[in-house]
Amino acid sequence: MAISKLEGSLTTISEGQSDNRIDLSSSSREYYKLKGLLEKERGNSHLIILQGTPDPDAISSAMALGFLGMPYGIEATVLCFMAVSHQENRALVKKLGIKLTVYEQGFDFANYDIYSIVDSQKPSTPVDKQLREEGVRFFAFIDHHRPDPAGVPYASFVDIRDDAASTAGIMTSYIEQAYPAGLDLGDPEQVIMATALMHGIRSDTHKFIRASLLDHQAASYLFPSVAHQTIELIERKILTAAMLEMLEQALVNRKAIDNIIYSDVGFVRAIDRDGIPQAAELLVTREGIDTALVWGIVDEKFIDGSFRTRSEMINPDEFLKGCLGISPQNGEYYGGGNSRDKGGFQIPLGFLSQFDDKEQVYAMAKTIIERSLLDYIGKASETDR
Hints:
The protein is of the alpha/beta class and 385 residues long. It folds into 2 domains: 3-17 and 240-376, Diaminopimelate Epimerase, Chain A, domain 1, CATH 3.10.310; 41-234, inorganic pyrophosphatase (n-terminal core), CATH 3.90.1640. Helices cover 40% and strands 18% of the residues. It is built from 13 helices and 12 strands. The strands form 2 sheets. It has a 6-stranded parallel sheet with strand order 3-2-1-4-5-6, with helices on one face. Helix 4 runs antiparallel to helix 9 (228-234). The relative contact order is 0.14.
């Protein structure tokens, strides 16, 4: 049963791998389109929006888009709606001195002429109304996920390549066109950007295990300009006490049916949210399992989940959209993902977040997620293993 079918329940009680071949010549065509549009925006202010929890692919892609606008005097601000939480991502921002602006009520959109979205399947944002009211134009939409079934974004520039494994790879292909001789090792800003892009590609391709030809070419271009010791420091695995507790809870709560395992981590703080995908990545490695779904209740406001699969038969985007359905409030899917191995979802708890009995809220959320999953995979009842 899809979440859309269960929305009444929630509000009453509460939300095939693609071919690696890619037409590299498209990078040149798309870059010159983008270049022409950037020239027309000379001297304007650019708001680059990151959806969800900022990850290395999104952060580095935003940096690259801002960098490409610099020769035209375009000032860019990177805006996100959630704080950086994963320890590697915090290390990325800290070590490279990356500036991200976290949205707060009262943010002045009148300061910007154009806005863009990178590394997000959704062309809409939580602040679309404010952007329209202030006349901020939708400039660019650049992504590597499967196109949203709702239709093509109305941005001036659209480049969606679901045969690329990272948006950072796409952005690097533009930079290679702009700087064919390579980046300047003597320019600290270019070294920082190259390092961020390399980490973004490595992160989204599982260190090149699932990289496309575009990603490999991008990494080859970036390699001479990357601060490799910084990459090693960023990728050093350090688990906080909260992360370890979440992993333990996911192991305790796990249930398996056929080749799918699912679990939850209970209530978590937003700052620890990235323990959810780490738990999914751990569970999917279990023998006899190729697909994992893990969720938690973040800040007592919404259900946040991650999906991982090693199956060539399961498309994460189709799976999550089919399993969770569409929100009747805004007509958007609760979840989605790439075409290879991972996805995510968020379901607002609505007025349930006001309930004092948190255990009851947890139990009801658990029932909703499990029922949706089991109904979608055609299992009337679950089987523990």
